[in-house]
Amino acid sequence: MTMPILRRCLAILVALIAASPLPAAAQAVPQSRAEIAFSFAPVVRRAAPAVVSINTRRTVQAVPSPLFNDPFFRRFFGDMFPGQGEPMQNSLGSGVIVDASGIIVTNNHVIRGAEQIQVVLADRREFDATVLRADERTDLAVLRIDAGRTPLPAIDFRDSDDLEVGDLVLAIGNPFGVGQTVTSGIVSALARTQVGITDFRSFIQTDAAINPGNSGGALVAMDGKLVGINTAIYTRDGGSIGIGFAIPANMVRVVVGAAAAGGRFVRPWLGAAGQTVTADIAASLGLPRPLGVVLGDPAAGSPAERAGLRRGDVITHVEGREVADEQVLRFRIATQSVGATAQLTVWRGGRERTVAVTLVAPPETPPRDATPLRGNNPFAGMTVANLSPALADEIGFEGNPQGVVVTEVRRNSNAATLRVQPGDVILRVNDQAIATVEDMRRAVAQQQARWRFSVRRGDQVYNLVIGR
User: Fold this and answer.
1) Which listed residue (135, 139, 393, 424) is catalytic?
2) What's the gap between Cα 299 and its chain centre?
3) Could you tell me if 166 and 127 lie in one domain?
4) Could you tell me the CATH number of the domain that includes residue 122?
């Protein structure tokens, strides 16, 4: 056999050996980031056992058939007429075990109104769950199950601020109830604040497929750690089109920590608010580009005032993290701890400076003095209270917490006909400024044929007239 032919045969033999699949025992778990890119299996093995399915049941009020009042039909069907009774409604979602003792986090909307909550583990074990905390403002809920002395598979949190656009992520959950499903994608965007799902908006956007039933499931980084809780999708037909949103793990960690500690969940208070810096505002202040929040007057005695912040200051960073708009500032402060000192980067007088602010719990000052209004006046049937920072935090009020806020409106009352809603702030009644509940009491005690009043709802002020 000549040498060229021998070389050709050896080349063919090497190619055949290289193409032959290795036995299962010879397959190794990837040991580096470069190797792991070829398969997500090691990440899934680490994270998937901590992702659970959540089944809920609640009673829904049946809507009687209009035929039920017909004597002919009642003669045949009696009280068993179809549509009567109290049917049960089942809902499905996902959750994540974040502590081996049985602490599970999910979305608040997954368990809202549930009378029974059942958790199904990845290994098909089933447990009844109790709610430790349900926080509507962050759309997070923390559950507990009792699995005895056997530790449950749990997933570790990762600092979600370390994520970058383009990072690979996995979404794990139970879409449409088909069973645990893993989808892959990338981080499409960070700090999405225009998605009006919760009060604290700074969502991770991903193109990993998220569908109904994925809510409350895990968004996992390539180190197998939790970076977010899948919460919502943008969709036209109910299915995934590659735009999904997750609550960052740094917010999840705060809510879970408060629930596990058993104390009241208190968000830190800065005592300053403002407006997002636009291109025009940036140009007027000499900022290199539109960035941050330009402050109004800090609340008297607030951490912001004590730290020396003042009207016109622009907060551009919190703990070195960029503040794009008002929502990001609220999110950054909410993920700090009460008593912590936050380092703020502030633009003032054409240059940057660092300001240390010690955050505190929002104070109950002035006392709320919740008062139901009665008598022969348009406001009878509403309950009002002094708007303190603590009450503003409870009801999710945005803006400067001053004045008198409506906390309740009784059905079929005079106030209900005004279409006033809880959260509205009463500014004036018959040309009298309303700063306290006592001001409101005095205003409604006067007999009037014509009532004029001003109400702030969100960013809008409405002036209303009742009577002749």
Assistant:
1) 139
2) 26
3) no
4) 2.40.10.10
Is 139 assigned a catalytic role? yes
Q: What is the pLDDT of residues 65-76, one digit of tens each?
A: 554 455 544 444
pLDDT in tens, 239-292: 677 888 999 999 999 999 988 887 667 889 999 989 999 999 999 999 999 999
Q: Which residues contact 246 (CB under 8 A, 6 or more apart)?
A: 203, 204, 206, 219, 227, 228, 229, 230, 231
Residue 317 bears catalytic tag: no
Q: Identify the residue whose tokens are 């004597």.
A: 71
pLDDT in tens, 328-348: 998 999 899 888 999 999 999
Catalytic residue selected from 94, 109, 317, 439:
109
* Count of Cβ atoms closer than 10 Å to residue 126 Cβ: 12
Which two structure tokens, joined as six digits, stand for 408? 């309740």
- Residues listed for the chain: 468
Strands (E), 72-129: 88-99, 103-107, 116-120, 126-128
Using the 3D structure, point to which of 304, 335, 358 is the last residue of a domain. 358
**Residue in 133, 275, 254 with CA at minimum distance from that of residue 200:** 254
Q: Which among 207, 238, 261 is the end of a domain?
A: 261
Specify the pairing of strand 314-318 against strand 321-322: antiparallel
Give the chain's domain count.
4
User: Cα–Cα distance between 82 and 288 in angstroms, integer?
Assistant: 68
Q: Which of 160, 188, 202, 215 is catalytic?
A: 215
Place of tokens 């409101």: 440
Amino acid at 317: H
